[in-house]
Amino acid sequence: MAGGLGSRFWPISNSDTPKQFIDVMGVGKSMLQMTFERFEKFCRREQIVIVTGEHYADQVREQIPSLEPHQVVVEPMRRNTAPCIAYAAAIINQRDPEATIIVSPADHAIFKQDKFEADMLQAVDVVGSHDWIITLGAQPTKPETSYGYIQFREQASLENAKNLHKVVTFTEKPPVEMARQFIASGEFFWNAGIFVWRLPILMQAYRDFLPAIAETFFSLGIDTPHEDLERVYAHSEAISVDNGIMEKASNVHVMEAGFGWSDVETWDSLYDVSLRDSHGNAILGGNVFTYNTKNTIVTMPDEKGKTVVVEGLDGYIVAASDDTLMICRRSQEEMVFRFASDVALKELIDKK
After folding, report:
1. Which of 6, 190, 222, 192 has its CA nearest to residue 93?
2. Mean pLDDT of the chain
């Protein structure tokens, strides 16, 4: 799934070039490219399908060249993850009605490729012999309020799979005190947003819990006329697969992810997963010099001849796009939405 807006990473990310198309991690590859390569190691290239918005289809093809037509599934508008997955499932169903499907966001960070591959293949093997939906859960390290939480039964679902548990509840973005209680109980994982299920089980879950989406989306295909696709999306409920199916289905099991995971949804989460120097600074891009600076994240366009000097900051975000520089305390990053809105409004007024 590569249709997110990535608005939290303004100014380096915006609606024209959201997070999944940017080298957020400072490694020379976009999040989408890293995700594609991660799956290509154990899945045939032609079996990887990317779902994105119509404004981003060209960027997908530029970043992942030589894709076949069925591999870029273009949504005419945003309707959350349940319609997105249903549309992709309909197209996959045309090619292989018995397919096993892994659903993954294109903009999450995975830190142990070998373990990721092992976990995915284990999940594929489990759903091959059980009519289950498997979701991946990461061990929480702090009371993060921007993540979903999965409560699980202590007993393992299978004798030979101690990392697999029956799901009890899903909770989306709890308040901090509730998140603390979740972690203290030892009964919760973070929801990594990765699902593994066989296509017949997926389609039956939609028919059981989201019948209107099943009825309209499962008749779509890669050659569906654009006007018909727009009509289906325009009349579709906007709902996540978590709310629409996972919270209701009785056959959902969670596998503890052993591969190191972050959804890299905020500047602070990016700081947490980035390499830092002895002063706690994460320098992710650009020709940057820091003095008397600590606990700060800095990312700049890698422009030849441009040098950035930062002095005297503690706990800041310093980020720039081609035309915007933001300097903001890490503790105040919720202001990013206001900054982006105010700048966009001024640009609109200036144009008039």
Report:
1. 222
2. 94
- Going along 79-221, which residue ranges are E strands? 100-103, 109-110, 133-138, 148-158, 161-172, 188-198
Instruction: List % helix, strand, coil for the chain (3-state, nearest 5).
Output: 40, 25, 35
Other beta carbons within 10 Å of 298: 24
Q: Per residue in 209-225, is it b (16+ CB within 10 Å) or e — as a string?
A: bbeebbebbbebebeee
To 10 degrees, what angle do helices 199-209 and 81-95 make?
140
Residue 60 has pLDDT above 70, yes or no: yes
Residues forming a β-bridge with 256: 137
pLDDT band at 7 (very low <50, low <70, confident <90, very high): confident
Euclidean distance between CA atoms 172 and 82, whole angstroms? 16
Residue 264 predicted with pLDDT over 70? yes
Average pLDDT over residues 107-136: 96
pLDDT digits (tens, 9 = 90+) for 167-192: 999 998 899 999 999 999 999 999 99
Asked if residue 273 lies in contact with residue 108, where contact means CB atoms within 8 angstroms, the answer is: no
SS3 352: coil
Reported as type and span, the H/E element at residue 30 is none
CA distances from 181 to 140, 143, 155, 242 (A): 12, 9, 20, 22
Asked if 70 and 93 count as a contact pair (C-beta separation under 8 A), the reply is no
Q: Do 4 and 12 touch, CB atoms closer than 8 A?
A: no
Q: Which residues of 227-256 are buried (b: 16+ CB within 10 A; e: fewer)?
A: eebeebbeebeebbbbbbbbbebebbbbbb
In angstroms and rounded to an integer, the radius of gyration of the C-alpha atoms of the chain is 21
Whether 27 shows a pLDDT value over 70: the answer reads: yes
